[in-house]
Amino acid sequence: HDNHGEKDEHLVPYGGSIDWEALLGMISGAPHELPIVMELKEATNGEPTLDQAREAFDKIENNLANKSTRAKKS
User: Fold this and answer.
1) SS3 label, residue 3
2) Tens digit of pLDDT for each residue in 12-69?
């Protein structure tokens, strides 16, 4: 989950201040596949929606796949 660095907000990835590109770069170098788990907190306005969570999950998977492909070419 993401946050703005002040409290444990459980935001959708890319919705706070975490540098996801750097984090995914570190994860992509793991010796084996790691599970992806999103721990989100519903806000009073009903967000995040399932579509927002799915979009973030897809973005993480695509970024990891791209980093893995680039690492294999190096």
Assistant:
1) coil
2) 999 999 999 999 999 888 888 888 899 999 888 989 999 999 999 999 999 998 887 6
- Alpha helices (H) along 1-74: 20-28, 50-73
pTM: 0.79
Beta bridge pairs of residue 16: none
Per the listing, tokens 């973005």 go with 59
What own/partner pairs with CB < 8 Å and gap ≥ 24 does 63-66 have? Answer: 63/20, 63/21, 63/24, 64/24, 64/27, 64/28
Residue type, 16: G
Find where tokens 């999103």 sit. 38
